[in-house]
Amino acid sequence: MAIEVTSLTAEQIVADSKRYTLYDWQAQSKASPLAIDRAEGVYMYGVDGRRWLDFSSQLMGVNIGHGDKRVTEAIARQAEKLPYISPFQAFEGRAILGRRLAELWPGDIEKTFFTLAGAEANENAVKIAKMVTGRQKVLARYRSYHGSTYGTMMLTGDPRRWPNEQPPMPGVVHVLDPYHGPQREVDDAQTALALLEETIELEGPHTIAAFILEPVTGTNGILIPPDGYLQGVRELCTRHGIMLIADEVMCGWGRTGAWFAVNHWDVVPDIITTAKGLTSSYAPLGAVGLAPHVAEYFDENVFWGGLTYNTHPLGVAAAIAAVQVIVYAGAILVLYLFVVMLLNLKHDDRYHRQWPVACLIGATLVIEGIMLSFVRGRAIPPAPANTETAVEGLGNTEALGDVLYSTYLFPFEVASLILLVAMIGAIILAKRDLLEPKES
């Protein structure tokens, strides 16, 4: 039986939405939503035909832009094949995404627990830290936001927490940030770490399970920590047996120029949480990444937790495709910048001998990248022109990589060595011109 869908005017959509649904973070009488019909690329289109530039990627999550068919079609295919399965079961998407995240997480983080959103990811991260350590307290910073569930709102440090403290959740200790507002200088890493260590000592290190923080603070001001701060936090947590939880719900998935913000400081947390950009917000999905020493606890101990929509197939399909779009976009950007550099070198008489050197370096990097992408199936192959097979082909990546590894690794290594020697030789031959450009 077909479901009849009638078209509503913009005014009807807004009126019925306000009457029958509850809008968050505002008094309902003040709500003034836009009636949106569709979105594509960086634009939203209203039912009345108006167009808006989506400067904030909605709630800072549509990292790849709206309407990317590689993602929407992946979700549609999954919906037709397996729209839902109990989290007690295994399916191909779960295996693929789990392995892919293990390759992308910082350091040796490997195992992932999936949730429906960032707040749930943070809730479960804290619960896991308490289970593993047997401790009850959690440190969080004042200038922070970790979600709007009861637990994550108590972890949140900003004033949105105040009306939700009815009563406050026990065991949460808020600490100062390096940033104290525009009227005061930002603390250097040494000063901020000294204040943090004092709080740890006064609270009792043996009582603290975890310290949760946003590596780059989001809604409280896009606050970048001073150099040395995150490394110092990592050292303090390690010294006192405190789990470091990196909340990368907003700052993950390329929003700071790296896969995850902690990568800028070479810090590996014990637990990492993410959502938003994981699926580019095309479908709900959050994730909790666990370092081996955390995950190993549950080898013999029950993980007392679970969610009906843990590892939901539609969210998983969206994540696999969205992450791959980010990979392709990064590769295309690098190639574009490299081509621009080559064209500038070729048409600049001062660098007439550097141009072939740059070409050789570029060719070396490209071939090296191709070789590395096939070694043991560690990377996903480029998307075919037919988007229908773009995501389905991912399931065979491991087998393909194993065959190529065992069959072609030796010639790849030989070619790599030859290219490396050729590149070094070319640079040496052009050394004079590289260091002293020819005057025009």
What does this protein structure show overall?
This protein is α/β, with parallel strands linked by helices and 440 residues long. The protein folds into three domains: 10-60, no CATH class; 69-318, Aspartate Aminotransferase, domain 2 (3-Layer(aba) Sandwich), CATH 3.40.640.10; 348-435. The chain has helices spanning 10-20, 57-60, 69-81, 92-104, 118-133, 150-155, 189-203, 229-240, 292-295, 313-346, 354-374, 397-429, 431-435, and strands at 36-40, 43-46, 51-53, 111-115, 137-141, 172-175, 208-213, 243-247, 271-274, 286-290. The strands form two sheets. A seven-stranded mixed beta sheet has the order 4-10-9-8-7-5-6, sandwiched between helices. A three-stranded antiparallel beta sheet has the order 1-2-3, with no helix packed on it. Strand 1 (36-40) and strand 2 (43-46) form a beta hairpin. The longest helix is centred in the last third of the chain and has 34 residues, at 313-346. It is globular, with a radius of gyration of 25 Å. It starts with 9 loop residues before the first helix and ends in a 5-residue tail after the last helix.
